[in-house]
Amino acid sequence: MRSIVALSLICSCLAARELPEADQRYGNIRHTDSVFEMPEYSSASEWRARAAYLRRQILWTAGLDPMPDRTPLSPRVSGRFERDGYSIEKVLVETSPGFYLGGNLYRPLGPAQPRPAVLLSHGHWAYGRLENSERASPPTLAANLALQGHIVFAYDMVGYNDTLQFPHDALGAKREELWNINLLGLQLWNSIRALDFLESLAGVDASRIYAAGASGGATQALLLTAVDERVSAVALVNMISFHMQGGDVCENAPGLRIDTNNVELTALIAPRPLFLVSATGDWTVNTLRREFPAVRSIYELLGQGDQVQAVQFDAPHNFNKASREAVYTFFARREDSFRGPVGEHSISLPQPSELLSLWNGSLPPNALQSRPAYVDQRIDTAQASLIAVRGSPSVEPSELRLASRERLQLALRVAVPSAEALQSKVVETWRNGEFFAIGREGMGDRVPGVLLRPRRVRDWVKPTVIIHPEGSAWTMSSAESRDGFVSKVLSRGGSVMAVDVYQTGHARVNGDAAAIASRAKPFFTTFNRTDTSQRVQDILTVIAYAQQRFETEQIQLICPQSAGLWCALARAFVDAPIDMVIDWEHFDAASDAGYLEHLFVSGIRKAGGLQTAVALWSAGRTVVFNTDESFPASSDAKLPGLDVRPGSFDWDGLLEWTAPRRRPR
């Protein structure tokens, strides 16, 4: 029989760590103009572990985990002409089947020899890579780098110049978000393939490939360098900031900056050489005082503090001559022949017709003709990847389980809290019960709940946790009714716990928080977890709390109505053999529509959704109501103790299952 004294001691221990007075998740809505700080890391090993996760986070949110096949680039050169000391070629490369990336290749004239190379990504200038104004001139930058001995590939953002198969803002619909299909991911893949192209060229020294970009182009260069070790040095111009994270759709993939920011992502470049160029007239005004020291702290942890440099110019947002000359000098320092600062030569710029492949030309016949065609291609690839991995005889079951859980975690951003991380507070007590609140240390959450105790505990009746869309109020009402399910469980000697998970019951959001959330649009999910993710996390938190509170892993979870799907996802992260009763509500786990309406999470379909979750359920008794032929377990799950019932949620029929009158033999 459980000891009440032991329960009290556990309660006192858990309560020792203070909870916030209110759930801070409702007010702490982050967005691109929030003010962030650099987390502190105490050792190189701690940072390396964090860095590995952040790289995975970038690739996952970009839809590049797993990495797509590197199909043939089939470069098409439609023209070449020479200038004084360098040549320019018009190039199209096929970064994925039917999608073409445009750019210009600048090469020094003279004898062939191994040369350094530079990948140039332009900002959101009106004319993209062809911009030629006082504040920015990618052709001037590229031509001067070529004169300095570099092979340079200046390539387009989507929707600019030659890369026109769909507009710059074409991707981002909610259905695409379910599959991690977004413009940032397409541009990051284009950057990776542009690097493949540059590396393949005769005369390129693969050990000396650099990258540079300003503004939104710096975001591209940052993300590429963070995930691709082939970039050996990078210059990021007028972008990296604690108080502005990028204002364009191509810089804000859903999930990208949950629990992180651009400054921490920039530190992923360490220990490779990094140059931060900033201006007094834009959001990089504080770089020398805040962002540069923060990034340098990571370089110093790795013993490479001298590999990161910074400079600031008194100018508005730009990639002007002074900034370009600073970048020339930074790259020149990488070479043994460095003799000092490098100035810029005046360039006779070509006409747009000389730089554009499609000025009087057309895309190859296999080019995708529409955004929907591209989206369908990506979804087909993702589905094929899921099917291939699940059916591969070369993948050990334990490896498959780990990989599947990791991807589901990357989508949901949830975790089972450790015993040390749990926080709790008893708010009010009475003879056979209490109101409490729980949360996780440092996370700002505060989840209200109720614990009801029977007059006499029967040790064969497992503690019951109820998750209801109406919150703990439903449990209290059921306990107060003589015919209520909770009342009957209590009368049979079972303890009952219930909580108000995110935006349910007493935890519903107030109007002020809703107003704050609206200001984060259209990039809310770039920085914040969705309601579904928060609810799944709260369920994991109460499971961990209940297991500690009752001193047993063997609890039972009952989740009627829409709460059933939240619990189905949460169960995928719990290894203990807990019992579970859920309402499936005839949810079609193989269709996008249900996720869009009832279970929205960025990337959840790419992770396999509820089909993956069911496959990850641990052993234990499980009853699923309101199922049909679409329920995943009907075809491929072999879970012991699984009881799939097409009928409606049956409280009366669950009573003996939940709280048997007599000790089971």
What key attributes describe this structure?
single chain; 665 residues; Rossmann fold; nine-stranded mixed β-sheet; alpha/beta; disordered N terminus
A few lines on this structure:
The protein contains 21 helices and 18 strands.
Write the layout of secondary structure elements.
Blueprint: H1 4-15, H2 44-61, E1 76-83, E2 86-96, E3 99-108, E4 115-121, H3 138-147, E5 151-155, H4 174-178, H5 183-200, E6 204-214, H6 216-227, E7 231-237, H7 262-266, E8 274-281, H8 287-301, E9 308-316, H9 321-332, H10 352-355, H11 371-390, H12 397-412, E10 422-430, E11 433-440, E12 447-452, E13 464-466, H13 472-480, H14 485-491, E14 496-499, H15 511-519, H16 524-527, H17 531-549, E15 556-559, H18 563-571, E16 579-583, H19 592-598, H20 609-616, E17 622-625, E18 642-644, H21 651-658
Parallel strand pairs: 4-5, 4-6, 6-7, 7-8, 8-9, 13-14, 13-15, 15-16, 16-17, 17-18
Antiparallel strand pairs: 1-2, 2-3, 3-5, 10-11, 11-12, 12-14
Strand content: 15-25%
Rg, alpha carbons: 29 Å
Described by the principal axes of the CA atoms, the overall outline is elongated
Please list the strands of the largest sheet in the order they lie side by side. Answer: 1-2-3-5-4-6-7-8-9
Low-confidence stretches are: 1-16
Number of helices: 21
Helix-and-strand structural type: alpha/beta
Mean pLDDT score, rounded? 93
The CATH superfamily of the largest domain appears as: Alpha/Beta hydrolase fold, catalytic domain
| CATH fold call of the largest domain | Rossmann fold
Cα(first) to Cα(last) distance is 17 Å
DSSP, total strands: 18
Number of domains in the coordinates?
Answer: 2
Q: Estimate the helix proportion, in percent.
A: 25-40%
Determine and state the CATH class of the largest domain. Answer: Alpha Beta
Q: Major sheet: size, sense and barrel closure?
A: 9 strands, mixed
